[in-house]
Amino acid sequence: MNDVKMIEVKENILADNEQVAKNLRSRLAKSGTLLVNLMGSPGAGKTSFILKTIEKLHKKIKIGVIEADIDSMVDAELVAGSGVRAVQLRTGGFCHVDASMVSAGLDVISCGDLDLVLLENVGNLVCPAEFDTGAHVKVGILSVPEGDDKPLKYPLIFSTIDVLIVSKIDFLGMTNFKMEALKQRALNLNPTMKIFEVSVVTGEGVEKWVDWLQTVLSPKVT
Amino acid sequence: MNDVKMIEVKENILADNEQVAKNLRSRLAKSGTLLVNLMGSPGAGKTSFILKTIEKLHKKIKIGVIEADIDSMVDAELVAGSGVRAVQLRTGGFCHVDASMVSAGLDVISCGDLDLVLLENVGNLVCPAEFDTGAHVKVGILSVPEGDDKPLKYPLIFSTIDVLIVSKIDFLGMTNFKMEALKQRALNLNPTMKIFEVSVVTGEGVEKWVDWLQTVLSPKVT
Fold first, then answer.
1. Which residues of A touch B79 (CB under 8 A)?
2. Model-level pTM?
3. Which residue of chain A is at minimal alpha-carbon distance from B43?
């Protein structure tokens, strides 16, 4: 297993977050590194989705992972077990990460030679949507057991994301979740959103996501 | 269906939230009304749990419900359909409710003759734990599909709650969720926590929760 560090991060209230985020994107563009910000509820399956993405891509490209949590480093340890560089940001009380925190994380994993960095934000459908982390692509993960009404209740995050991963589709049919209702509600807020239906247990839908991710690897960072 | 109102609420940054919460508890004590604050992730099953609790108790006691969401009033409409007084707090961007917001909600449902008010907080495992809403009992809901590692990642909320409802136990065996691991992690943070395992689909465990709730109805408010 690679060495995993945990760093304590604090909100940089003095810095202009949008400027820090912009600088971060420039820095990543120079090294050709795509930064993907993954947001979703606690238990939506963010870490499992990252592990599956690594499994499919780590032989083709160099990947790093930034895990953020209020506390614990279980996710970063799990991810590092898959052989990629990982760092855990411990936010203390903070319900989100900002661009300064991400920048600190990128320093720890020495991102200069990486093609892709996956950022797992704090599990939360509210606060993470409000902060630019410097990511090129914003991905929301919503799991089937959470229900199809979430775009109605958390409109900002669904308006903000470029990609929606509907995870745990192996649970379809076991709840009253209606995929078409979810898609309609999400697309009403954000008509250009890409939607992928995925199960990391059965593997269904994973290839489509990975294929799409590969198409944006280069163009986004040049 | 009862009439449902939606009120827009804002954080009262001028008021001392702890003092407002204290006053709220005094006000509720006078009318013998127990206020229960339900917190959990988006999709943990908070609304379904409230509906099930109403179904079991509404012939015995008078119940009101305060629903809080960033947007939409789907939950309050659903709850009002069960015949109880309900109000929707629309928090706009806020990831939690505070005592002033709850006080405004109680005014709308005229809580003076109610025995029990159930407050459904914004779906979030971080921010709601930080604010005293004036509630007598704090209940956390964690659903089986979310995973058994959540106390490690969101320690504050698990340290704060009086009761943990492990919901959607009909999903046990379909994921790698380990009930004993969850309980151990939760009790490590909070050894006096009451834990109920519940499925609103099969009805399992609901009676135990309702029986316990009835035991605290009077003592807590006198």
1. none
2. 0.89
3. A146
Contact A150 B42 (CB under 8 A): yes
Task: Say yes or no: B71 contacts chain A, CB-CB below 8 A.
Answer: yes
Q: Does the ipTM surpass 0.90?
A: no
> Which positions ≥6 away from B8 have C-beta within 8 Å?
B90, B92
Output the CA torsion sign for B157, B9, B43, B220. Answer: positive
Which residues lie below 8 Å from residue A13, measured CB to CB, with a gap of 6+? none
Task: Extract the tokens encoding B2.
Answer: 């009862």
pLDDT tens, residue order, chain A (222 aa): 456 888 888 777 767 999 999 999 999 989 999 999 999 999 999 999 999 999 999 999 999 999 999 888 889 999 999 989 999 999 888 899 999 999 999 999 999 999 999 999 999 999 999 999 999 999 999 999 999 999 999 999 999 999 999 999 999 999 999 999 999 999 999 999 999 999 999 999 999 999 999 999 864 443
Can you tell me whether residue A118 is helix, strand or coil? strand
Chain B residues within 8 A of A155 when measuring between CB atoms: 70-71
Dist. CA A17–CA B34, nearest whole Å: 43
